[in-house]
Amino acid sequence: MVSPQEKPIGVFDSGIGGLSVLKQLVRFIPYERFIYLGDTARVPYGNRSVDIVKEYAKQCTEFLIEKNVKLIIVACNTVSSVALETVIETAGKIPVIGMIKPAAGAALRSTVNKKIGIIGTRATVSSNSYGKEIHSLANNEQVDVFSQACPLFVPLAEEGMIRHSSTKVIAEEYLSVLKEQNVDTLVLGCTHYPLLSQLFKEIMPEVNLIDPGEHSAVSALRLLAESGELVEEKDEFLIKPNIEFYVTDVPALFYEQAQNFLGFGIDEPIKITLE
Amino acid sequence: MVSPQEKPIGVFDSGIGGLSVLKQLVRFIPYERFIYLGDTARVPYGNRSVDIVKEYAKQCTEFLIEKNVKLIIVACNTVSSVALETVIETAGKIPVIGMIKPAAGAALRSTVNKKIGIIGTRATVSSNSYGKEIHSLANNEQVDVFSQACPLFVPLAEEGMIRHSSTKVIAEEYLSVLKEQNVDTLVLGCTHYPLLSQLFKEIMPEVNLIDPGEHSAVSALRLLAESGELVEEKDEFLIKPNIEFYVTDVPALFYEQAQNFLGFGIDEPIKITLE
């Protein structure tokens, strides 16, 4: 019988972008064991129908349940936006943390002028998931939410063109409306965007960036601590976080991109089939 | 009888720099009640003798004990470096979190090439507190720690010269040795330095910045959650964090500087005398 502390935390994403979320989890709860599932054979989810995203999300959740996880983190903003309920229903008693709510709360606590910007893929922006959550948490307070789809950031980040001059030109264009609206808080509503943080700060130096991965990691810490399922802190030098990687495909540039997202190299992933 | 959850968290610093630590606490455990004490009449502690710093630290701790705090955060890097034991002894059963250990652990988990840079005031750098803690946590692993005192950053930050060209010139000079040593992780060993984060990232774009305030906030979250003393998360829009401010003097520029450190304006502080 495995004790609750010994069970792993499951993290899934449509691809490898969710590694930026895993990076935050490792930063805040480094002593845990993680299982990361990237559905790299079917990435990106962003342009698919809601029904198919729900089906894929269900399959990912079932895979993690079989791994006996104590908590599921939905690292994918698209799944968090359109299929979180499906994950929660599938997960049963296993708690689920998505990207939207922790970031919406953080954005509300961050904003002073009550003007919040959201950037994300077209799917996330169209769903208005962040806007809805922010307005729901804000109760009757007036908060203005401005959203901007930034479809080129994912391919640019995956090509490693983080400091390329054309990425800056594109970012300036994408962010211009949010800048005009004078938002003081910007939610990075896609797993790839934390890689571009430095660029966003150059373009909007006064803005407070909200990384949903960071805030979902804090939610995970809080949830596990309160339920007594947190692994105890150890006074030792961690050579390497304890992570098992599962993917549905190993694409070209996989290891390079994983290194960019995580900040450290990863072991060979185990290739699986979801259905 | 006050329940453990209802008790405030006490934070003290030699001045207002500790507000950068309070900012992180508010970010990670926003539902708590905070008491902030800034010994603004006797700031800075950095150039004083160890004995006098210990005496001041004891007085600050006693003030917070009288306020019935459930946890004490030593926001001052100098006190954390040379007088943490005094605070712990004075605090008795009340847990104490300083800046050094959480940041040392985070730096070790962050570094890949095992080269860590520390910047701080002369007092903090001379004490080698970060170096000692890092080497102690690292056990027998080889880790190189390079320290650089940056005495001008505090006055420059307090003058609000965060984006001034001369601040950049000075920062380039201070950081040049650490850059030559190829550190991949930089600990911001003074409460004022997070204000200069953007500048540090421009000078050393590949480096991972460690903000001790952030990691002490995570330690606080973990500690309170594990002891059952954490205030429950609320689904509501927080207009304003719950903070009482105490100072030993209200210096010129106080409100402006407080806003810079915290990111939001503060109420009038209560002036007290420590002895």
List key phrases describing it:
homodimer; 275 residues; alpha/beta; Rossmann fold; six-stranded parallel beta sheet
Description:
- Chain A has helices at 19-28, 50-66, 77-82, 84-91, 100-110, 122-127, 129-137, 153-158, 165-180, 197-203, 212-226, 254-262; strands spanning 9-13, 33-38, 71-74, 96-97, 115-120, 144-149, 185-189, 208-210, 242-247, 270-271.
- Chain A folds into 2 domains: 4-98 and 214-271, Rossmann fold (3-Layer(aba) Sandwich); 100-212, 3-Layer(aba) Sandwich (Rossmann fold), CATH 3.40.50.1860.
- Chain A starts with 8 loop residues before the first strand and ends with a strand.
- The longest helix of chain A has 17 residues, at 50-66.
- Chain A has 12 helices and 10 strands.
- The A-B interface holds A 26-28, 30, 106, 108-110, 112, 137-139, 141, 143, 163, 198, 201, 205, 208, 218, 221-222, 225-226, 230, 233, 235-239, 241, 263-264 and B 26-28, 30, 106, 108-110, 112, 137-139, 141, 143, 163, 198, 201, 205, 208, 218, 221-222, 225-226, 230, 233, 235-239, 241, 263-264.
Q: State the CATH topology of the largest domain in chain A.
A: Rossmann fold
Mean pLDDT of chain A equals 92
What's the arrangement of strands in the largest beta sheet of chain A? Answer: 4-3-1-2-9-10
Task: Please tally the helical runs of chain A, counting DSSP H or I stretches of 4 or more residues.
Answer: 12
Domain module tally of chain A: 2
Q: What proportion of the residues of chain A form beta strands (DSSP E)?
A: 15-25%
Do you know the CATH architecture of the largest domain in chain A? 3-Layer(aba) Sandwich
Instruction: Give the proportion of residues in helices of chain A.
Output: 40-55%
